[in-house]
Amino acid sequence: MSTPSKLFVVTAPLPSEPKVGRARVLMQSEHARRAARLSAQAALAPPLRFEKNSDDVPLPYQGWSWSVSHCAQFVAGVVCELGVGVDIEHMRDARAEVVERVLSAEELALLGELTPQMFLRAWTAKEAVLKELGAGLGKLERCRITSLEGPDALALDCDGLRRTVHQLIEPEFVASVSCADGPQAVWLTVRTPISSAAEEHG
Ligand SMILES: CC(C)(COP(=O)(O)OP(=O)(O)OC[C@H]1O[C@@H](n2cnc3c(N)ncnc32)[C@H](O)[C@@H]1OP(=O)(O)O)[C@@H](O)C(=O)NCCC(=O)NCCS
User: Fold this and answer.
1) Ligand 1 closest atom vs CA 134
2) Domain 6-201 classified CATH 3.90.470.20?
3) Which residue in 26, 105, 120, 142 has the fewest CB atoms around it within 10 Å?
4) Closest CA to ligand 1's atom 39
5) Cis peptide before 18 (omega within 30 of 0)
């Protein structure tokens, strides 16, 4: 397999209905998969089966890895021939105890003024790396930011594995994608909820 040159990451807003409960959770998962299917179309990947193992970790399909993320109002999805992880969070303040759990004193010094945007850059970057590696939040403390790589990338180390995470920073959300170094991240930002028709016709 040759290294893919581009990584197509799709983000989209969620519909407002259903508002709460299991129906909303299912809808969020479905819309995240629609985003991943659009990524698959852009990457000329086969139509994916979204199967996971018993730990909830996405299983590659015909050599293609996939990752999805859903927050209150947005989804992200990506597929790649390399392992891949994506995370999206809507813009908001972080509570002090969350900051303390996620970032060490060294990381706080590295990041400078901790605006809501900067915290979410750090948080989504770590989640993207952990998801690429199929690890849960239990491994959070082993994932450390090592440098700021300009306005839309962070370098991380997780158990000796180094990653440059690419980021999309919008007024309403921050998204991060992690993949073995190589492919250029291309962000495809859909501005309305993805309908099944849009997904079929790309
Ligand atoms: C994986 C994890 C980081 C996801 O973060 P999140 O912000 O809650 O949720 P997101 O919307 O970004 O991502 C959800 C998707 O991640 C995927 N996912 C779940 N566990 C995963 C894992 N271990 N590795 C990679 N992807 C995973 C799933 O596809 C899921 O979407 P789906 O339910 O629609 O299929 C988090 O749920 C987690 O750590 N789970 C494992 C449990 C755990 O370790 N708990 C320890 C608490 S200290």
Assistant:
1) 24
2) yes
3) 105
4) 136
5) yes
